[in-house]
Design a protein that fits this description.
single chain; alpha/beta; three-stranded antiparallel β-sheet; 14 strands
């Protein structure tokens, strides 16, 4: 890099001072104009491309975020847990200049051509055009603090340095201070996560920082002309009894943006696939049938609507991610055991949801120790029924149900049964294999199946939608289990589980 090394070269380079909010605004305007000059498809996704990874926010949160930056506002993101609030905050530095010049040796990042701090001005007076310039990368200009009840004013703003005071400096002199996180974020972005957890007196201490950009330490007014963008995240005020955002502070925050959970299972699937760790460097590849992932997202959707779940707490997107990962891991364990060519989750693997969802779903009233597990099991059955009925007409399975009449016919599946054995067992049930093959074709042609297959073609997740030649028995076994489980949750078949083996019979 050939960046100016001293004040003389910096001035000759054409650099001009800008506030942090003007910098963000101008860079955002340039990106929006670049997107506007692109082709129609690029224009449709241009604004979303500025904040990559924020799926489902293209027409809701992102436009509000853009408005806030254009308006030069401090920002509060208000929403339930797992709604990408922190992810949004951490994308803001991408709108900053790649490098920013500061005066070397200054405690606070100050602009060499528009100094605000007395120490910076003194360095410039001493060294003049030979003043050394240091360059700060934009990633270093974002500082984040998780609010906890023990956070103090000294942590955020600063404290009097007794040693400096003893050297003869006045208490009102900025150089008497030991600076906190906010002054050290000068010309950058400072984020406070979970703002209501800050004690009210600490929130009050942020008033002047937001409004007048000056501070007071132990009753002594210290003028610090700070240039910082303050951004916050918070759950709704009635989420817990830990605290709330004091009204005067919220009044001084320019823009408050409400986040939300995905509006559809399709959006939820995109988010989960983008964040779940499904890649395997060695061993069989991961190939997730669309109906398995759809059931997971439907399960989470139902949990967010359940009267037994604390909706003020919410059900995080992390629940979907953890659930998919553990379901794939359960299928991987079976694939390794039976030397199967791919990791293909089946309905039986959804039992692993219990371990992934414990602690992530907050019940309103837990009457017994296993109340959470019972709710997870009930929601899982309802989710499976909802998804399966999108692919299968229950009436069309009447002939298959008749094959189980008399109670003498049964089929064995489960973790302890490999895909080849499941298919072999299904051949003894008249009509089961043809029904499963028809189901596979429906999976391949479904919107979910086409989306996932498109991800594979684009080099994305290794999750698959159609039965590949090498793993056909595994996909057929997955379809067989879905049919059997639908008949069970519809009270057409009984289900008996012993260790890792499951038997379906009339």
């Amino acid at each position: 890099m050939h960046l100016p090394k001293n004040l003389r070269d910096l001035r000759a380079s054409g650099y001009r001072p800008r506030s942090i909010k003007d910098e963000l605004r101008e860079n955002l305007i340039r990106l929006l104009r670049d997107a506007g000059r692109s082709d129609a498809d690029a224009r449709a996704t241009g604004a979303a491309a500025i904040f990559p990874g924020l799926v489902g926010y293209e027409t809701t949160v992102i436009p509000q975020l853009i408005n806030a930056i254009l308006a030069r506002h401090d920002i509060l993101l208000l929403g339930l847990r797992g709604q990408a609030k922190t992810r949004i905050l951490r994308t803001l530095p991408t709108l900053l200049d790649e490098f920013m010049p500061v005066v070397a040796g200054s405690d606070i990042w100050d602009d060499p051509l528009a100094p605000r701090m007395s120490r910076t001005r003194r360095l410039l007076e001493v060294h003049g055009d030979d003043t050394e310039i240091r360059w700060i990368h934009r990633d270093q200009r974002y500082h984040e603090k998780l609010a906890t009840p023990d956070v103090t004013i000294a942590d955020l703003i600063g404290e009097v340095d007794i040693v400096k005071h003893a050297e003869g400096r006045y208490l009102s002199d900025e150089e008497t201070m030991h600076f906190g996180l906010i002054p050290r974020s000068n010309r950058g972005i400072f984020a406070i996560n979970e703002l209501p957890d800050l004690a009210p007196r600490i929130q009050v201490g942020l008033f002047n920082v937001l409004e007048e950009r000056d501070i007071q330490i132990r009753g002594y007014p210290i003028r610090l002309d700070l240039d910082v963008l303050l951004v916050f995240s918070a759950n709704p005020e009635d989420y817990t009894n830990r605290g709330r955002i004091v009204t005067p502070l919220k009044d001084r925050i320019g823009t408050v943006i409400r986040t939300h959970y995905p509006f559809s299972n399709a959006e939820a699937m995109r988010i989960t696939r983008a964040n779940a760790d499904l890649q395997r460097e060695a061993g069989p590849p991961v190939d997730v049938p669309p109906h398995v992932h759809e059931i997971i997202e439907e399960f989470v959707r139902l949990a967010r609507q359940s009267p037994h779940v604390n909706q003020q707490s919410g059900v995080s997107v992390r629940t979907s991610i953890a659930a998919l990962e553990v379901v794939v891991a359960n299928a991987e364990r079976r694939a390794l055991r039976f030397s199967e060519p791919a990791i293909v989750p089946r309905v039986g693997d959804l039992a692993a949801l219990q371990s992934a969802c414990r602690g992530k779903i907050e019940l309103l009233l837990a009457e017994s120790e296993d109340a959470e597990d019972k709710l997870i099991e009930a929601l899982r059955g309802e989710a499976l029924k909802n998804i399966a009925e999108q692919y299968i007409e229950l009436d069309s399975l009447e002939p298959l149900t008749a094959s189980f009449a008399g109670g003498k016919t049964a089929i064995e599946v489960g973790d302890d049964v490999g895909a080849t054995e499941v298919v072999s067992n299904a051949k003894t049930i008249k009509g089961l294999i043809p029904a499963a093959e028809t189901l596979l074709k429906q999976f391949a042609n479904s919107p979910a199946g086409r989306r996932v297959e498109g991800d594979k073609a684009g080099g994305g997740s290794s999750a698959g939608a159609t039965a590949s030649t090498v793993a056909r028995d595994q996909h057929l076994a997955a379809a067989i289990e879905l049919i059997l489980e639908l008949l069970h949750v519809s009270d057409k078949l009984s289900k008996y589980t012993m260790r890792e083996r499951t038997i379906y019979k009339k």
